[in-house]
Amino acid sequence: MTNSSLPALQIVLPVFNEEETIPKLLLRLDAVKEKLKDAAVVSYLFVNDGSSDGTRATLESLATKRTDLRLVNLLHNFGHTAAIVCGLDHFQGDICVVMDADLQDPPEVIPEMFEAWKRGEKTVVAERKSRREKTQLMFKTFYFFFHKFARTVPPISFGTHCLLDKTIVQRLRGLSEKNRYFPGLVAYGSGSIFPVQVDRHERKDGSSRVGYFGLVNLAVTAFISFSSTPIRLVSILGLTSATVGMTAGFVIVAVKLFTTQAIPGWASMMTVLSVGFGMQLLCLGIIGEYIARIYDEVKNRPLYYAEKESTR
Ligand code: UDP
Ligand code: MG
Q1: Closest ligand 1 atom, residue 50 Cα
Q2: Are 124 and 116 within 8 A, CB to CB?
Q3: Full domain range(s) for residue 253
Q4: Total number of domains in the chain
Q5: 161 CA distance to ligand 1 centroid (A)?
Q6: Which of 12, 53, 148, 225 has the most CB atoms at less than 10 Å from its CB?
Q7: Is residue 215 part of a domain?
Q8: What is d(CA 4, CA 133) in angstroms, rounded to the nearest whole number?
Q9: What confidence tens digit (pLDDT) does each residue in 217-227 have?
């Protein structure tokens, strides 16, 4: 708790090139702050993830004017998840709200999350009951398979917009892994998870800063860190193709030995060979994804470097 008897609620916002959105975002955040003024002391913690536009200057100027706004600048762009991790490391308060700064996560849901916290919930997540994005099919496919195979699963359709009690933040700070799937780790570090429903709108300004490649990379990280299925699939594929190959071999020899015919087939041979070859490469690729991530863990590089925090 702060000096005031009200709980301190700090909103952690990773930002990368959001210069145009920040004024609109702050207007909406301030409206939420006003709504909660008798219930919580609300403040903002922006993590500028190496923006190359005017984001840094805008936030620095705000941080010198406002006591309720802190800014941490990262040395360069480390990615969305690393920026959130930095936000959690620098968080001060009783309640932490994590949300994107592009207004796809509606700030207006924070009072409802806060009410749930007051009732004793330690982890409250925004579940997207609708999403108006072009990547919907991609997300649905991911969630379908992830929820089938992962050991620890967050509620379906939870991104990173959530409220965490400081005890949960403390737990997440204790993690040392480098390849992180944030929603999965929130689920891992939480007991019960209370979902609140939100509508997710399309990004108004520009295109996704994370991008398709970033999303695919995150999906692979999610599978690798929360499920052994991909690597098991390699063994299953290997076993299946070996069985098919051996059976075909027996059939070919038997036909040759016990009949007057021989199985003709350059085409069939090539098909089997190329399918087998493709499968081997696929398996090598899957193993490669694991090795790349193990290599990251072994290197043990810090997830981010932050500059000295801007203070008033
Ligand atoms: N972001 C960041 N670093 C990055 C990419 C994005 O801090 O390298 C921020 C971005 O400014 C936004 C949030 O993370 O506040 C989510 O990014 P984006 O909207 O691009 O992700 P999407 O909604 O497409 O998943
Ligand atoms: Mg977004």
Answers
A1: 3
A2: yes
A3: 229-299
A4: 2
A5: 12
A6: 12
A7: no
A8: 41
A9: 999 999 999 98
Task: Tell me how far apart the alpha carbons of residues 265 and 248 are, in angstroms, rounded to a whole number.
Answer: 12
- Considering the domain architecture, whether residues 194 and 268 belong to the same structural domain is answered as no
Count Cβ atoms below 10 Å from residue 288 Cβ, excluding itself: 11
**Range of weakest confidence among 87-96, 188-197, 238-247:** 238-247
> Is residue 54 in some structural domain?
yes
Confidence (pLDDT) at 35: 97
Please give the structure tokens belonging to residue 173: 């700070």
**pTM of this prediction?**
0.89
Between the CA of 99 and the centroid of ligand 1 the distance, in Å, is 10
Average pLDDT, the chain: 90
**200, 262: one domain:** no
CA–centroid distance, residue 182 to ligand 1 (Å): 13
Segment 279-303 mean pLDDT: 92
What DSSP state is assigned to residue 104?
A: S
* Domain shared by 269 and 172, yes or no: no
Q: Are residues 48 and 145 in the same domain?
A: yes
Within a domain: residue 142? yes
Upper half-sphere CA count for residue 164 (Cβ side, 13 Å): 30
Q: Residue 195 is inside which H or E element, if any?
A: strand 194-200
Q: Are residues 115 and 166 in the same domain?
A: yes
